[in-house]
Design brief:
With about 325 residues, the protein is mostly beta strands. The protein has one helix at about 245-250; strands at about 20-30, 35-45, 55-60, 70-75, 80, 85-90, 90-95, 100-105, 110-120, 125-130, 135-155, 155-160, 165-175, 180-190, 195-200, 210-215, 220-225, 230-235, 240-245, 260-270, 275-280, 280-290, 295-310, 315-329. It contains 1 helix and 24 strands.
Amino acid sequence: MTVIDRLRQPPPLDLMASAYKDWLHVNIFDHSAGLVGLCNVSLHGNPDDPRSLAVGAVVLAEMDGLPRARVEVVDMAAARRSPTSIGIGDLVAISLAQGAIDVAAHLPDGTAVDLSCIATAPSIAAERPEPFGSGWIAWRALPRLAVAGSIDLGGRRISPDRAVGYHDHNWGRWHWGDDGGWTWAVLAAKDGTVLVLSHTTNRSHRTGSPNVHVVWGSTIRRFSGHSVRVTGTGRLKGRLGRHPGAMAALHGGRTTPLLPEVVRIDADDGFDRVVAELRPVHGIQLITADPVAPGYGFIHELAGPFEFESVIDGNSTVGSGLGIFEHVD
């Protein structure tokens, strides 16, 4: 499936250009290696404003080891940009290449990612802007990708040919620190089933309506509104990595946010249904600062194994895999 997409930079005379946000995101789920990966590049602020920023983030979390993570923040003018790509220094670059999504990342400890991903399922499109904070947000996703290339974990080389990839592109106009937040998850099963949770809300997570897309073969089933329930129980155990370090030092009161030990997703529309439970092993907090408004956002990434049961088109499935849950406030 050909990827046809581009960055959505502000047109001339855009009165909300100072609130411009645009980012490209890729996840990798390698079941044989027990690895969850996250690569992200993003733009924040009017491209013509010297205060505007570009951010790159890389997280590689081994289920039986410690996560490797790094975040770099640079002036937007220093980022490598084209209509279909963003690169942040030597850390990470994502390109919406013709027919593929290319990802390259390098960490100081020798960890390296070099991947090319091809869509193997239809896209999820939510490109109509919806209210978010002081502005709006829109997005599109390729929920299942075939992955080729290599991952080098400091000398241990992984060939992720049987891994499952996920890509989304988010854009809009809002300021970090606005009354906005979201929960999102991607759960990639060993049998190829993929669950995508999306829920845009206010900062206290008391508004909005959740959506769940289930990719089953070449079919996508959507559940929304009252047919979806997302619950978190317990409290995440273990150390929460916080990045970048300078931002973390400024926000000592956010060292122990209330994050769940178990995330459960129930979706049932009376015809199809799915139940999934994610048990995070690792947690990372990514802190974002707005370049023109006095505000911050806190993005929490929780990665771990999950189990699920589903009935789609009368076919029952029980399975497991790896997933990531994101809580933003």
